[in-house]
Amino acid sequence: MVVIDRVKEDFYQRISSDHVLVLVYPDVDSLCACKILQTLFKADNTQYTVVCVSGISQLKTAFTTHHDKVRSVVLINCGGGAKLIELLQPEEHICIFVVDSVRPLELDNVYNKGQVHIVLREGEVLEIPDFDDIYDSDQQAEEDGEEEGEEFFSDEEVEDSVTGGKRRRREGEASYEARRKRHLWRRKREEILYKYSEFNYHSTAASLVLYELAWRLTRDNNELLWLAITGLTEQLLHEKTDREMYVTEMHRMQPHVLRLNRSEEETVSAINTMKINFVEEYP
């Protein structure tokens, strides 16, 4: 599993030295996140191509059109729920970085060990099933081994000896036990996948993830802060997040507001002169 929560070291420093393809979903959070990333690219003279995509077919078309020019692809609020390797079939040298607030993520993307990287805000916990509960290569190996074993011995060869019958019974019992375990594993897998994919929801806004990248690069400013807060507010207005989560995130942004808007003449005692307050509104 390649999940990136060190956005500076494991994400930005890896992509900023080459031409980058950025595929963006057309909503406010995505556009704010893209603008933040563009600002960072311009500061580092990083070449990039931005394409707006509103569906899987457009995602595939945009990638097919531009993939030969790039080594890194950034998906902003798109593609996280699709099997990207199967869909895009990228060459081995291309790495795909997913900055997507939509959950659940496709597990094939999460557990891909080479080309797909999930970018998270530092400290965020990704709630996903264990690998062994979803992908079990040992079970497949047992299936292949049993099939080979069944083909290797014919009935005549087994019955040639006195112990042949006992051996067949032992093999039959082992085969039954293996099938039973496979059945239980598959049923458990189905239950886990159902619970994992039962509800769609939104996690941290992509604009917040990329704003914190700008902050860690010491490139943040009021414009980028405004973009991040706008992206977060869009999540609330379109009911992609609830008020409790919104308030939590806004309180997390409060130190950035104070830091970027404190004049040189201000003293520490005046730290509370600018503060975001929340008041319940009633119809």
Automatic annotation (TrEMBL):
Q: What biological processes does GO assign it?
A: cell division; DNA replication initiation; double-strand break repair via break-induced replication; mitotic DNA replication preinitiation complex assembly
Extent of the signal sequence: none
Q: Cellular location of this protein?
A: Nucleus
Output the superkingdom of the source species.
Eukaryota
Keyword annotations? Cell cycle, Cell division, DNA replication, Nucleus
Molecular functions (GO terms): chromatin binding; DNA replication origin binding; single-stranded DNA binding
Q: Cite the residue spans of the region called Disordered.
A: 138-173
Identify the InterPro entries for this entry: CDC45
Bias (Acidic residues) ranges: 138-160
In terms of Pfam families, this protein maps to:
CDC45 (PF02724)
Q: Name one GO cellular component term.
A: DNA replication preinitiation complex
Q: What is its main location?
A: nucleus
Protein family membership: Belongs to the CDC45 family.
What is the protein's given name? Cell division control protein 45 homolog
